């Protein structure tokens, strides 16, 4: 899956010469915590609520509330934003975006094509993709199976589901240890008793079963 398939297009933005209250207003009205900072369509930085909090007068300051508010009102986005921005291409793999977000301890990446901002990808987008890939909300049955980690093991599993005319809608494999793997299979049917019996007979263990009716 690619970034362009999960990104939010036409993101909300601010410019470097806008005030911090302007940026906070956009974040509050739009329900976001981060904004790309642009000059034209070129991304020059990213500003977050954390950036603003770090630049705000400390609660221990001797400034009055009125003085602190005045200082913040005069502060420009360009003085507070994180720069240079970490960006990603729309053709990058979603896993690449996840690694950049995780390793960089950031929550949003501007998506750029050439020098132009075309979207953003966030931690929430990655989590939604993970849920979709595993079919957690899809109609049917989701089986979590422990199987021997050996050549032909996956073919055996798919052969059993095919013999029962069950279509695999989602499939994920996690290598648990040297001998076994955990396989998550999303099937398009709620009636999996016979499938489960055949899987067990083939040496596979059903660890969990989830049925979605909607």
UniProtKB/TrEMBL annotation:
Question: Residue limits of the CBS domain?
Answer: 7-63, 81-136
- Specify the signal sequence span: none
User: Mind listing the UniProt keywords for this protein, alphabetically?
Assistant: CBS domain
Question: In which domain of life is the source organism classified?
Answer: Bacteria
* Sequence ranges assigned to domain ACT in this UniProt record: 142-214
Q: Which organism is it from?
A: Tessaracoccus aquimaris
Q: Which InterPro entries match?
A: ACT-like_dom_sf (IPR045865), ACT_dom (IPR002912), CBS_dom (IPR000644), CBS_dom_sf (IPR046342), Diverse_CBS-Domain (IPR051257)
**One Pfam short name:** CBS
Q: Does the keyword Acetylation apply?
A: no
Descriptive protein name: Transcriptional regulator
């Amino acid at each position: 899956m690619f970034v362009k398939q999960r990104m939010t297009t036409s993101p909300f933005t601010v410019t470097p010469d806008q005030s911090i209250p302007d940026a906070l207003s956009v974040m509050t009205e739009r329900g976001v915590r981060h904004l790309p900072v642009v000059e034209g369509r070129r991304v020059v930085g990213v500003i977050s609520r954390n950036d603003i909090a770090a630049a705000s007068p400390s609660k221990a300051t001797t400034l009055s509330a009125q003085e602190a508010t005045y200082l913040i009102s005069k502060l420009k986005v360009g003085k507070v934003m994180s720069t240079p921005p970490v960006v990603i291409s729309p053709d990058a793999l979603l896993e690449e975006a996840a690694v950049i977000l995780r390793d960089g301890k950031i929550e949003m990446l501007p998506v750029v094509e050439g020098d132009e901002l075309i979207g953003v990808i966030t931690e929430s987008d990655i989590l939604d993709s993970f849920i979709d890939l595993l079919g957690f909300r899809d109609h049917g049955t989701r089986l979590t199976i422990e199987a021997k980690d050996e050549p032909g093991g996956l073919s055996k599993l798919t052969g059993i589901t095919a013999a029962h005319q069950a279509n695999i809608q989602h499939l994920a494999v996690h290598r648990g240890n040297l001998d076994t793997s955990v396989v998550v299979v999303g099937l398009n049917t709620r009636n999996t008793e016979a499938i489960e019996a055949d899987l067990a007979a083939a040496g596979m263990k059903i660890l969990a079963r989830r049925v979605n009716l909607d």
